[in-house]
Amino acid sequence: xxAMRENVFRKSSLAIRWxxxxxxxxxxxxxxxxxxxxGAHLGIWRRRAVIAANGLRSCLQVKWMxxxxxxxxxGCLVQxxxxxxxxxxxxxxxxxxxxxxxxxxxxxxxxxxLVGWLEQHPEISVRTTYNLLFYFFSxxxxxxxxxxxxxxxxxLITRDLSSNAIIVYxxxxxxxxxxxxxxxxxxxxxxxxxxxxxxxxxxxxxxxxSTNWHFFWHSRVAxxxxxxxxxxxxxxxxxxxLGISAISVRAKATxxxxxxxxxxxxxxxxxxxxxxxxxxxxxxxxxxEQISLAIFRLKNDFDLxxxxxxxxxxxxxxxxxxxxxxxxxxxxxxxxxxxxxxxxLAALIVWRKxxxx
Amino acid sequence: xxxxxxxxxxxxLTMPPRMSAPIIETTNLTKRYGRQNALDNxxxxxxxxxxxxxxxxxxxxxxFMKCLLQLQPITSGSARLLGREVGHEGREIRxxxxxxxxxxxxxxxxxxxxxxTYCAQLCGLPFQTARQRAHEMLDFVGMGQERxxxxxxxxxxxxxxxxxxxxxxxxxxxxxxxxxxxxxxxxGQTQILELVQSLWRQHGISVIxxxxxxxxxxxxxxxxxxxxxxxxxxxxxxxxxxxxxxxxAEIVVxxxxxxxxxxxxxxxxxxxxLPNGRxxxxxxxxxxxxxxxxxxxxxxAPLEVIPSPNALEEMFVQALATSDQA
Lengths: 357, 326
Fold this sequence. Notes:
The structure holds two protein chains of two kinds.
Chain A: H1 2-30, H2 44-60, H3 63-88, H4 95-103, H5 105-120, H6 122-152, H7 158-162, H8 165-171, H9 176-208, H10 214-218, H11 220-245, H12 251-274, H13 284-296, H14 298-308, H15 312-321, H16 332-353
Helix pairs in contact in A: 2-9, 3-6, 3-9, 4-5, 5-6, 6-9, 6-11, 6-12, 6-13, 6-14, 9-11, 11-13, 11-16, 13-16, 14-15
Chain B: E1 2-5, E2 24-33, E3 36-46, E4 50-54, H1 61-68, E5 76-81, E6 84-85, H2 90-95, E7 97-100, H3 112-122, H4 127-140, H5 156-168, E8 174-178, H6 186-201, E9 206-211, H7 214-220, E10 223-228, E11 231-237, H8 238-244, E12 248-252, H9 257-266, E13 271-273, E14 279-282, H10 289-297, E15 304-307, H11 311-325
Helix pairs in contact in B: 3-4, 3-5, 4-5
C-alpha cells in the first residue's frame, strides 16, 4: 500500500516537474519580446546595500563561517549566563549563592563580598563588573572576528578581480567608491553577526534577566565602551581586510596573507619588548588591544575593586603584582599611529588595484 | 586629426529613433598608455543607430568604448555620451548605458538569473522589477532552464547570451558590445547578431558593435567607424561606403556562365568565375544598367545581382593601407 502510494506520489511529482518544464518551454517560445522599462531608479544607498547584501550572502554560503557565527552567539549565551549569575548575587538566598556555597565555601565568601559591594555601591559595582566582563567578551569576539574575516577574504575583492566581475561593477550605475563602500558594508554586516550583535544582545538579555531594572542604567557605560571599541575596530579591520583582499587575485594567497599578517604581527610583540619597542605597533591586534585598554580603562576598575571589595580586593592585589598585560598602562597614541600607517597602506593598495583593467 | 560628422543615420529604421541628438560626441579625445597613443585626437559626432566599430586587433576600439564608459581615464580631450560630460557624470551616464565586455566577467558561484537580477539591481531597479526583467531578458536572449544553473558551468555561447542579457536588463539607451560573437559557432553567431539587430531596428536601442569581423558589422550596422592605430580613418553610413565602392557586382545565373564571362571580356570588363558559381564582374559604372543591358543582349536572365560585394572589406583594407602609408 505504502509502495503504491509512493509510486503515485512520484508520478504526480514527475508530472508537476514535467508541467513546469513545459511551461518553461512555452515561455521560451512565446514570451521573448523586449519590453522597455520606465520606472524610477533606486537611490545610490540602495545600490550600495545591494552590493553589501550580495557579499554577505556569499560569505554565509561558507559552511565554516556559519559554524563560527554560531560559536560567537554561543559565547553571547555564556555572557548572558554570567550576567544573570551576577544579578542573582543581589538575592541573599539565591540559587547561585547556595550553589557556590555547596561547591566551595571560599567561593561563597567571594560571592558574599561581591554582594556586599553590589548592595553598597550599585552604580559603581555594576558598571565595573560589566566593564570587565565586556572587555573580556570583546577580546574573545575579536579573535573569532579575525577568523571570520580570513574566511570571508576571497568573497571581498579577490574574487571580483580574478573573475573580471569588477568590469561589470564599473559599467553599472555605481562608482569605485560605491563599490568599496558596499564591500565595507559587507564586512560591517559580517562583524555585526560575529561581534556587535552578540555584545548588544548579551547586554540586553543580561539586564533583562537581572533582578533589578537599574542594571540597564548602571551598565550603560560598559555598553558604551564595548560599542565604541567594536565600531572602531570594525572600521579599522574593514579597511585592512579590503586592502589585503585586493593584493592578489588568488583566494588562497589573500587568506594566507591575512593570517600571516595577524600571526607575524603577534610575533613582533615579544620581539619588540626585548629589542625595538616600536616594532610591536606593527601588530594590528596589539594596537587594537591598546585601544581597547584605553577605552575600557580597566586599570581604574581594578583599582576601584581592589580598594572597595573586601577579600576579593586582596586577591586582586595579588594579581596586580604579577606582570599582567591587562593592567599595563595602554599606549593608544602609538597604537593609533601604527594603525594609521597600516590603514594608509591598505587604502593605497585598494586604490591601485580596484580598477576595471 | 581626423574628423567626420554623420548627418543622416536614420535610414532603414522600422521605428522612430528615441533621440535625434548625437549620442556620442568626442573632441580631440586622446588616451595614452605610457608613450603609446591608444587613441589619438579622435573627434566624432555619432547619431543614434546601429554603429559598427571596425579595426584590426589593437586598433583602439575597446579603448574608445572604455573611455566613453569611464572604465579608462581620458588623457586629454573631451567626450560626451547621451549629452552628458564623460568624467563628471559617470553614474548618470552608466544608468542609461549597457556594456558587454569582450572577456568573461561573471561572478563565480552565481546562477544565471540571479546574476542578471543582481546586475539590474546595481543599475537601480527594485528587486521585484529586477527579477522580472531578468527573466524577460533571459527569455529575449533565448536562455531556457539553464538560467537556473551556475554560470561556471555555462558554455561560451550561453555566457555571451548572459552578457547581453545583463547589458540590456536595465533598458539602456545605448548598448556597447565588444566582440559579442567571439567563440560562438555559426548558428550562435547568427542568433546573437539577430538579437543585436533587433535592439535597434525594433526597440530603438542604439548599438555600438566593436568587432574585427567585417561580416558581423556588414550584416547589422548602418554606420561604420573604422579605427586603426588610435585614429578614426572612416566614419560614414554603410550605404555611402558601398556607394563609394561601386563598379563591381556578383551575378548569379542558372547556367551559361561561360557565355557571360566571354561577353564581359568582349566589353573589356575584368571578370572571373567564383568557386560558388557566381560571376564577378568589374563593370566600372555607378549603376548596374550596363551589366543588365549586356545580359539582355545575350538573352541571359540573372537569378540575382549583388552590387558592390565585399565593399566593406575593400574599404577596410584600403583605409588600413592609407593609414600605413601615412
